[in-house]
Specification:
37% of the residues lie in helices and 18% in strands. It is α+β, with helices and mostly antiparallel strands and 200 residues long. The chain folds into two domains: 2-44, no CATH class; 69-185, no CATH class. Strands 2-1-5 form a three-stranded antiparallel sheet. A two-stranded antiparallel sheet has the order 3-4. It is elongated. The model has no long low-confidence stretch (mean pLDDT 91).
Length: 200
């Protein structure tokens, strides 16, 4: 940032200094030269470091002030809810495998659980006389049994409960904060259940 008499100026355009008969115009090209700038009292200062605009109002004089605590809290709670909702459909681990847990998949699992409710755990889950081979998030196939279906459904329930609980813990932590600086340093992504990560 370049300044003349304490006021920000641009050096990429012609600069007029003074008024009336005393005014002089300095071509933009010459202002790239440090000696020319020094000759006319033009100083260079580092650009001000702006505060994070999610949490602070930045003013033209380089100062900043915290936004209202309630406004910041609402913003962070919105981010937490959005992350919570994404995790609800980002995969769920049951045993050694990860399974899709989007709404369509959960509906399919619930239907299979109802159909196999009276079967023993070891009984294969059949469709048209063939045991269903369910594709995991890793692309492998798992032969379904009544027990495996119940295992996956239970894992979904535990996973969803853990996600909900973590969101509520974050909400409670934010509710207890009365300082925007603390909120700005708070990690809303910490402590959530694991998500599926594809192997390279």
């Amino acid at each position: 940032m370049f300044k003349l008499n304490g006021q920000p100026i641009r050096i990429d355009i012609d600069l007029t200094i003074g008024e009336g008969d005393d005014a002089i115009t300095i071509p933009a090209g010459s202002l790239r030269d440090a000696d020319t700038r020094a000759q006319h009292g033009i100083t260079e200062e580092p650009e001000p470091v702006l505060a994070d605009e999610r949490y602070y109002y930045n003013h033209s004089d380089g100062t900043s002030e915290p936004k209202p605590v309630a406004q910041v809290r609402d913003m962070l709670w919105g981010q937490i809810k959005a992350h919570r909702d994404r995790l609800q459909e980002s995969g769920c681990q049951a045993g050694a495998d990860w399974f899709h847990n989007d709404i369509k998949s959960r509906t399919q699992w619930e239907r299979m659980a109802n159909r196999s409710a009276a079967q023993a755990d070891a009984d294969p889950y059949l469709v048209a006389g063939q045991q269903v081979q369910w594709k995991t998030m890793a692309g492998t196939f798992v032969p379904l049994t009544a027990g495996k279906i119940r295992e996956v459904i239970t894992a979904f329930e535990i996973h969803e409960a853990a996600i909900f609980m973590r969101a509520e813990q974050h909400r409670a932590a934010l509710a207890a904060m009365t300082d925007v600086e603390l909120m700005a340093a708070y990690d809303i992504r910490a402590g959530w259940p694991a998500v599926y990560e594809a192997q390279p």
